Amino acid sequence: MSGKRFVPDDSEPECPYRKYVCCEKRSALEGPRTTTGKPTSDATCGFRSRKRTFPWMVIVYREELDDPTNQLFYQCGASLIAPNVALTVAHCVLDKPKERLVIRAGEWRLETEHQNRRVAQLITRKASTVHSLANDVALIVLSEPFQLTETIQPICLPPKGTSFDRSDCFTVGWDRMLVCNGFAMLVKRTWGEQAVVPHDVCPHVLPPVRPVQPFLCASGVITQDVCPRNSTGFPLVCPIPGSPHHYHQAGIVAMPNGCDDSGAPGIFVQVAHYRDWINQQLVLVVRNCEYQAVKTEPIVHEWVVGR
């Protein structure tokens, strides 16, 4: 399927939400595959991202009022869960005016074709703060939907109550230090290495400052070649049991594991725990169509990562 619109047969109901993408009952999304249908395995400079490999990744940029160069600065990552809604961690956007945020999809190499959108609404849970991982989840409602293409597609979310205890999950990040022959969006070499730590074991391997439940933690082999310095907000993706090469989003990177030899696991927001809340907000977004009238001028900026 590769995340494309699911065309139901006679036994499947029509997607009830206008402008949204309904996943099959198994919530499947084709994973990191090449155009030949084989998983990407040839890697230099980490796992090199190819066109169409991760179409659900989006980037959150910010504008600076005092910047005379009209540049965009990298803020964090996110995942596209509907043509006009992205999912990220709350601490990425809580203290940022929505008018200063720009969401970009379809950028798999520097200076490739992409789409930019303004932000119409930021939705967070109560008690979310920039200093805590409690309720650290946010929805970014766009001023207008992305036009879905082969490089821009939504990812599916796991059903409520889904548990993850696997060794074949992976994360995808964007790192300026990993630009290699023009490729900048890289996946950690994590097949069989990025393991979701069992829930009863995770608290015992965390540092003294621990996140508030619920969360996932996962660890892998960390080297300087695959260090995800700017992976906050990007998804942790795991295979769907019984469905080879199909994936859904298990978590959101909240506290990436460090680029050192400490072995500390990364901390991820547990998406399945918030599935009911996400569904409720999506229904409200569909009912409130006012944001669709928001139009913006074309956004022209120079790409910059951080300061």
TrEMBL record:
Residues 43-283 form the Peptidase S1 domain. Belongs to the peptidase S1 family. CLIP subfamily. This is Peptidase S1 domain-containing protein. The keyword Disulfide bond applies. It comes from the Eukaryota. PROSITE patterns: TRYPSIN_DOM. PANTHER family: LP15124P-RELATED, SERINE PROTEASE-RELATED. One of its GO terms (molecular function) is serine-type endopeptidase activity. SMART domains: Tryp_SPc. Pfam families: Trypsin. Keywords: Disulfide bond. GO terms for biological process: proteolysis. The keyword RNA-binding does not apply.
